[in-house]
UniProtKB/TrEMBL annotation:
Protein name: Beta-ketoacyl-[acyl-carrier-protein] synthase III C-terminal domain-containing protein
Protein species of origin: Streptomyces daliensis
Domain Beta-ketoacyl-[acyl-carrier-protein] synthase III C-terminal: 54-141
One example of a Gene Ontology biological process annotation: secondary metabolite biosynthetic process
Keywords of the record: Acyltransferase, Transferase
Alphabetical list of InterPro entries matching this protein: ACP_syn_III_C, Thiolase-like
Gene Ontology molecular function, alphabetical: acyltransferase activity, transferring groups other than amino-acyl groups
Length: 142
């Protein structure tokens, strides 16, 4: 699912940071973090609910849920708070690795497999986010 209505909440115009040497006032990354946070919350909820409804499943059915981790607040407020993802089925990697962007999903899945949280036959979910605002959710059986 992608929702571009908030595209201007996070943008790099005129060639982005590569064009910075051209002294144009808009040739840098600009972000309205509050608007971006609000849109991503909505996209996360919409994407999650749509897919879980289509699959006739809930977050409680999943052994492990990997989510794009930008801030602990997002994990607590959006994923566990607003969507109701069980916190005990998530692995927080922010404190040790920081914002690893899209690499955080395979990192979390690897940790879930190593720890025994998830294994063959289990249902797991992976959710990634992108500025704009876009969200992708994959539910799979290991």
């Amino acid at each position: 699912m992608a929702d571009s209505t908030a595209w201007d909440a996070a943008k790099a115009e005129y060639g982005g940071t590569v064009a910075r040497r051209h002294a144009h006032p808009h040739c840098r990354f600009q972000m309205n973090s509050m608007r971006m946070h609000e849109r991503l919350n909505t996209v996360v909820l919409d994407t999650s609910r749509t897919l879980t409804d289509e699959l006739n499943t809930t977050p409680q059915d999943m052994a492990f849920i990997g989510v794009h981790q930008v801030a602990v607040r997002d994990v607590e407020e959006t994923y566990t708070g607003r969507f109701g993802m069980p916190r005990d089925r998530m692995i927080l990697t922010l404190s040790e690795h920081g914002n690893a962007a899209s690499a955080s999903l395979p990192l979390q899945l690897s940790r879930a497999l190593e720890s025994g949280m998830a294994g063959p036959g289990d249902i797991v979910a992976l959710m990634g986010l992108a500025a704009g605002a876009s969200a992708g959710l994959m539910v799979l059986r290991l």
